[in-house]
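Sync notes, pocket subgroup
Present: LS, DG
LS reminded everyone that the earlier model was apo-only. Rerun requested with nicotinamide-adenine-dinucleotide included. Inputs:
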Amino acid sequence: MTNMASQSKTVLITGGAGFVGSNVLAYFFRKYPDYHYVVLDALTYAGDMRDITEEIQKSRNFTFVKGDVRDKKVVDDLVAKADYVIHFAAETHVARSIADGEIFFETNVLGTERVATAVHRNRDKVERFIHFSTSEVYGTAESELIDENHPLNPQSPYAASKTGADRLIYAYHMSYQIPSVIIRSFNLFGPRQHPEKVIPRFITSRIIGEPLTVHGTGESQRDFTYVDDVARAIDLVLHASAEKVVGEVFNVGNGRGVSIKYIANLVLKMVEPVNGAKGGVQVVSTSDRPGQVSRHAADFKKIKTALGWQPRTTFEDGMRLTVDWYKQNRSWWEDKLKMKQVPIELKKGRVEMQ
Ligand SMILES: NC(=O)c1ccc[n+]([C@@H]2O[C@H](COP(=O)([O-])OP(=O)(O)OC[C@H]3O[C@@H](n4cnc5c(N)ncnc54)[C@H](O)[C@@H]3O)[C@@H](O)[C@H]2O)c1
């Protein structure tokens, strides 16, 4: 632990009742029990208080504020007390953004503007501000691996809104020297991810004996990182010296493309359906989801060189941990299944559940 890390700090985490935020909170709470943690979360359909353990919720070092990142006053009051700000709150589901994009731009762009402005206003207090961006800003890879200089060609409303937020942070750093760092994370997986996302959708479908539906050819690839590995990257960025990280963009990923078909087949192997039901992989032959990125893997040399970060959990090991969690926490996901699919209008005017 560095000197800086051993002092007690107040960490504001927006979106801390969602998948990534709650896992990062749990990681930090274990590692820095003397810090004070404040979670700001609107508890949309994607937020769940059960994502935050009872131990954390009962701790004197924890405060939960139900509120919206678009609310200037709430955001400003909380940022005024924070040494560190980690901004996750967002609308996050690509398919939902294709069905209706408006809330994505409101939350992801305007919400980020509120947080960045509050950081600027409270610049004497805030030491570091991590904006959690996504590799979706890059679009389909133009080279085998994507580094931070790859062009930004977002292909869905979700990706476009996150690109707006990402560039807004860059502009606020250039204009006001806010102490920001942008982390562009490739796909993440692990416990407490909503079953609308592909890995938990496959695992939960398999547990209840439904076929795993793969759209398009299933050949499109993603680079998946286990969520604890990204928590470690955030830890390193938060506690690094300012010269190394402030104003920078860092990719976080594994550099390995995994196809959707491979994931489906792995889930079939790892999960026995209850009651011996016979689900298999059902390939629905459609064109891919509109806005689907076909190839996507990270070049993470920059964060490795600057901070020594590299992933520690293989995809297969992370999958075992994730499968175990979903098997043991059925009551958490069962009532979310009704939201696992979204109707999307495809090019030919055909509506399909994705
Ligand atoms: N999950 C991934 O694979 C992945 C990869 C790269 C980047 N990201 C980014 O990580 C962040 C978190 O993603 P996630 O997967 O945990 O998403 P999630 O949907 O599980 O959680 C989002 C959280 O934000 C909260 N929220 C939404 N709108 C809000 C608002 N207006 N005010 C306050 N809180 C609000 C929700 O209640 C929820 O708790 C997002 O910024 C996302 O773009 C995620």
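DG: The pocket of nicotinamide-adenine-dinucleotide is lined by residues 14-15, 17-21, 41-44, 46-47, 68-70, 88-92, 107, 111, 132, 134, 162, 185, 187-188, 194 (CB under 6 Å).
LS: The radius of gyration is 20 Å.
Action: DG to write up.
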